[in-house]
Amino acid sequence: WLEVGDGVLVRRYAELDLSIGLVLGPTGCLVVDTRGDEVQGAELAAAVREVTSLPWTVVLTHAHFDHCFGTAALQPCQVFAHARCVAALSAEGELYRREWIERYRQQARPNLADALAAARLVIPAALPADRDEFSVGGRTVGFAHLGRGHTDHDLLVKVPDAGVLFTGDLVENGAPPAIGTDAHLAEWVPTLDAVIDLLGAGTAVPGHGDPVDAGFVATQRDQLAALAGLVAAVRAGEITTAEAIRRSPYPEATTRDALACPN
Questions:
Q1: CA angle 261-144-116, nearest 5°?
Q2: DSSP strands (E only) in the chain
Q3: Which of 13, 70, 130, 192 shows a CA-CA span of 20 to 30 A to 240?
Q4: How many other CB atoms are there within 10 angstroms of residue 216's CB atom?
Q5: Contact between 155 and 143 (Cβ < 8 Å)
């Protein structure tokens, strides 16, 4: 565990370079995301128990499998997410599972494929739409959806007394942002403007990679803005795909993902 603020910890995992959050309060704790299967979730639960014996609540930043298919290993407990995350997991959770089972098998990683296949999918409860701050374990934590980007339901978790903001995959460090078919590339840019405003001088914890500051988020925003401009130019017939790839701030695979994104 790395303490990034008073009573706010991050644990990094090699698989997908995932970052998991833990917020400690006087009577309980908050776990931010749960990893990608029940084996991984059980490892996380044991790691939390190395720090605290207090009961936990879980919040999920978004519906992609690597952030939430470990939830069953932390049951019984309350599990919350944005309302559209609840809808996405209900409608698309099994699709996310199948896609990554196939990917792991193609990578000759059968243990991960089998663990994901066996993971029980837990559907979270929707956070109340009329509240943005909650007391979790006796500590005030803020939840915010600032706009579409990586998905249509990206949830940020702010610990105001520690100056820490968990961003989910709206921000990634160490690899380009993941742009799937459920991303909203053009809207991602103003959403990151709002993230920067919310973060201020604090510490941002990306969904993957080391903690960062507002300057890092601004750089990613600018790169995504450049990429969105290239995608728009290709769709308008102003430049070719090859030209967009050549001029992109990101590798070819990321640029092609952006070009294939329907939103």
A1: 55
A2: 2-5, 8-13, 18-24, 29-32, 56-59, 79-81, 125-126, 133-136, 139-144, 156-159, 164-172, 203-208
A3: 192
A4: 16
A5: yes
* pLDDT (tens digit per residue) in 52-78: 999 999 999 999 999 999 999 999 999
Tell me the β-bridge partners of 157: 143, 166
Reported in sequence order, the residue ranges of 128-248 that DSSP labels E, i.e. its strands, are: 133-136, 139-144, 156-159, 164-172, 203-208
For residues 90-100, give the mean pLDDT.
Answer: 96
- For 228, the enclosing helix (H) or strand (E) is helix 214-235
| Token digits of residue 257 | 């993902």
5-14: per-residue pLDDT in tens? Answer: 999 999 999 9
Record the tokens describing residue 5, joined without a space.
């603020």
Coil, helix or strand at residue 20 = strand
Which pLDDT belongs to residue 130?
A: 75
d(CA 263, CA 259): 10
